[in-house]
Design a protein that fits this description.
Length: 209
């Protein structure tokens, strides 16, 4: 894979809490780290994202009396899956995985820091309105092609890819550099929507255009 100079790699939420042993472990999540490191070396432009919640965040099941992780509730901005407490600001679980080795990454986008709104996407919070600033950053840097890898494929990778596509970026998810949570059919749904909306799904071994 040889990415163009107007391409960016978005490395999504490769944090301790999403790795085996973490609070919201994505199975096999650790397995992608060497591949992500290798892919990143081919990109001039790399952005890393970090899920970054205050204690008592609205996405935590523990915030809602009588609710369990992986249940869904209706919030003012739509349906919200409830999660175990994870990626609390400043905690070791929120730290980037120690094996992540991307010293040339230029920007770390933190997201999900508003107590009352979740943010899967690196571009917009879950209300689909509140921006993180990433769109402007990429526009100003003349980026045209967004590649997305990381955790979890069916949540933060998927939502990030959707927003990238919606803003006119050519958008590619490198599937073998992702792992999914796959709760209640979430992976099949994400794949179907990506296929319908023109988000490419490729393997890291693919040759680019
Ligand atoms: C994520 C669930 C909750 C993710 C973040 O990174 O995919 N999933 N917070
Ligand atoms: Zn989260």
């Amino acid at each position: 894979m040889v990415p163009e100079s107007n391409a960016v790699l978005i490395v999504t939420d490769i944090q301790n809490d999403f790795l085996p042993g973490g609070a919201l472990a994505v199975s096999d999540g650790h397995a992608i780290v060497p591949l992500v490191n290798r892919l990143a070396r081919g990109f001039q432009n790399v952005v890393i994202t970090q899920d970054w919640h205050p204690a008592g965040h609205i996405s935590f099941a523990s915030t809602h009396a009588g609710r369990q992780p992986f249940e869904t509730i209706g919030l003012r901005y739509g349906q919200q899956v409830l999660w175990p407490d994870h990626c609390i600001q400043g905690s070791s679980g929120a730290e980037l995985a120690p094996g992540l080795d991307i010293p040339h990454a230029q920007l770390i986008i933190r997201k999900g820091y508003h107590a009352h709104t979740d943010s899967y996407s690196a571009f917009f919070e879950a209300d689909r309105k509140t921006p993180t600033g990433l769109t402007g950053y990429l526009f100003e840097r003349n980026i045209e092609h967004v590649f997305v890898v990381g955790l979890a494929l069916d949540f933060c990778v998927f939502w990030t890819a959707q927003d990238a596509r919606a803003h006119g970026f050519q958008t590619t998810v490198i599937e073998d550099a992702c792992r999914a949570i796959d709760t209640n059919g979430s992976l099949a749904e994400a794949n179907a929507i990506m296929d319908k909306t023109g988000i490419q799904r490729i393997q890291s071994t693919a040759r680019l255009g």
